[in-house]
Amino acid sequence: MPSITIYTKSWCPYCSAAKKLLGEKGVAFTEIDIEKKPEARAEMIQRANGRSTVPQVFIGEKHVGGCDDLYALDDRGQLEPLLQA
């Protein structure tokens, strides 16, 4: 199973929704709160090809995108295969 990283802010409802979906899938993930680790914001933007909103989700080295992108992948049945790769 690939490592999963999600960049968040503690008060962000979209971050909560993305973490909830990942939790429902039963996968462990590493959460990086860019308010608590401000230096991680630049890393997130670089890894996300310039996207600066949270959450930003990575499965392995693949940039999935934000909350809407994560849910769209799930709706299309494409999230499970990524999680199992």
TrEMBL record:
Origin superkingdom: Bacteria
Pfam families: Glutaredoxin
InterPro entries in the record: GLR_AS, Glutaredoxin, Glutaredoxin_subgr, GRX_bact, Thioredoxin-like_sf
Gene3D superfamilies (alphabetical): Glutaredoxin
Keywords: Cytoplasm, Disulfide bond, Electron transport, Redox-active center, Transport
Annotated Glutaredoxin domain residues: 4-64
Function, as annotated: Has a glutathione-disulfide oxidoreductase activity in the presence of NADPH and glutathione reductase. Reduces low molecular weight disulfides and proteins.
PANTHER family (alphabetical): GLUTAREDOXIN 2, GLUTAREDOXIN-1-RELATED
Family: Belongs to the glutaredoxin family.
Protein name in UniProt: Glutaredoxin
Species the sequence originates in: Microvirga terrae
